[in-house]
Specification:
449 residues; alpha+beta; Cathepsin B, Chain A; 6-stranded antiparallel sheet; 3-stranded mixed sheet; 16 helices; 17 strands; 41% helix
């Protein structure tokens, strides 16, 4: 695969435009591509061929091309992710995974750089706001200080969906420019005030510690989220939003980043499980289930805990088990939302896990799948390990679970979406093989305690 020089589009006439023709089929193509979660890339190609057959010979030609490709996932993102579709009009080049990953890393770096500029921008706006008050000093509470928060997949999909007929204009340079033009809208803030007693640093009284009262303003930053950009920057229609959502989901599945965490939830809850405790590991674990009728329909941002709350529910288990405080999923979801952990229609940002542990004063370390002994040793020593899982035994997409102990050489888990899975013993190899391959914030495993 060839990467586009200077991040500019290298779409050429022929197969590239035939493929883009399939994208313009809209909902039919999105629906077939969404089936990739069950059927894999070749399943998506087959589904795309069926959908295309219902439209025109041009779409069918594009689908035939796609069936030839070793990798098919997001046909509408040819330049940004795949560096273009071909070296020549007849030779597909979507077969270099390393190059694809590098493209995604470049996009992530570029977007996060602009997000950093957005932080500076909102801090400047706060300084101007404070200058117009009668306060003595101010403080900025920044939940994103340790991690730039964004759903890169959503940014990419929304940007490309907005292009419509102008697919040849798609490039990282253009995407970066659009976000930078709107960096003043990336973050907003709320303001509160309080009176604080501080030491008086008057040099005339340096031998005597004196205090004085000061009026402080506290500014709390909040990330406006990709949903804001869909409406106010990219101006997507409802159909474009649906298409972008489908492709963002497929991109997350393809990259193995676990950004999409969605439990199959149709509003049917579990009866209250009451106060469940697991005592068969080195640490007694307080268990919560996100589908429990007590909070399944309670909000997680504008989503609900039952469908999207595996992150806060997992951290409810961890915090309630390792501290003297019991925090249920409803309380944790509220905290996660207020502290920048919620990702609209996707679940939770990966940074929620270490951020929450630190907020409750618990040591936390990231861990990779290539370090199995660290995981086993941690569990044997009474620590808990949060794991981000992909399609397999625990989920069809992305899902946080808690590893809670070791017994008879197997792993004990606390799965926030399944009480039955939480009572089974699991081979460590299953967990290692099904963990996210591109988790952020130090994952896909976080050792806590």
């Amino acid at each position: 695969m060839k990467k586009a020089e200077n991040n500019e589009s290298i779409l050429t006439p022929g197969p590239a435009h035939a493929v883009y023709g399939t994208v313009k089929a809209g909902k039919a193509i999105a629906a077939s591509a969404k089936g990739t979660a069950a059927g894999g890339p070749y399943g998506a190609a087959a589904g795309l061929a069926v959908a295309a057959g219902r439209h025109s010979g041009k779409l069918l030609a594009g689908a035939v091309l796609l069936l030839m490709l070793p990798i098919l996932f997001v046909v509408m993102l040819p330049t940004l992710i795949f560096g273009g579709l071909s070296d020549s009009p007849s030779q597909p080049i979507l077969n270099d995974n390393d190059a694809i990953v590098q493209n995604v890393n470049d996009i992530t770096f570029a977007v996060n750089s602009v997000l950093g500029e957005g932080i500076s921008d909102v801090e400047d706006r706060i300084a101007l706001d404070f200058a117009g008050t009668n306060g003595d000093n101010y403080e900025i509470v920044n939940p994103y200080a340790d991690d730039m928060t964004s759903n890169i997949n959503a940014f990419i999909a929304q940007y490309c969906a907005s292009k419509g007929e102008t697919c040849a204009d798609i490039s990282l340079t253009d995407l970066e420019a659009i976000i930078r033009q709107n960096k003043g809208s990336l973050y907003s803030y709320t303001r509160t005030s309080e009176t604080r007693t501080v030491e008086d640093d008057d040099p005339d009284t340096e031998d005597v510690v004196e205090t004085k009262e000061e009026l402080w303003y506290i500014y709390t930053l909040s990330y406006n989220g990709e949903g804001y950009f869909a409406d106010s920057v990219f101006h997507l229609s409802d159909e474009q939003k649906e298409l972008a959502s489908d492709y963002a989901e497929n991109l997350s599945l393809f990259l193995g980043d676990g950004m999409l965490q969605h439990t199959q939830y149709d509003g049917v809850t579990l009866s209250s499980l009451g106060e469940v405790r697991f005592t068969d590991g080195a640490t007694e674990v307080v268990y919560f289930n996100q589908l429990d009728e007590r909070w399944a329909n309670k909000p997680y941002g504008t989503d609900n805990i039952g469908g999207y709350g595996c992150g806060p529910t997992s951290m409810s288990i961890v915090i309630s088990s390792l501290t003297n405080e019991v925090v249920d999923p409803e309380e944790m979801a509220k905290w996660a939302y207020e502290n920048g952990g919620w990702c609209s229609k996707s679940g939770s940002y990966h940074s929620l896990i270490p951020k929450t542990a630190k907020a409750w004063g618990l040591p936390v370390e990231g861990c990779k799948a290539s370090e199995p002994q660290r995981i086993v040793d941690a569990l044997a020593n009474g620590k808990l390990v949060v794991a981000l899982m992909l399609k397999g035994h625990f989920t069809s997409g992305g899902h946080f679970i808690v590893l809670r102990g070791v017994r008879d050489g197997k792993i004990l888990v606390a799965d926030p979406a399944s009480y039955s899975r939480s009572k089974k013993l699991w081979d460590l190899s299953i967990i290692l093989n099904e963990a996210s391959t591109r988790a952020g914030a130090g994952g896909p495993f976080w050792i806590i305690g």
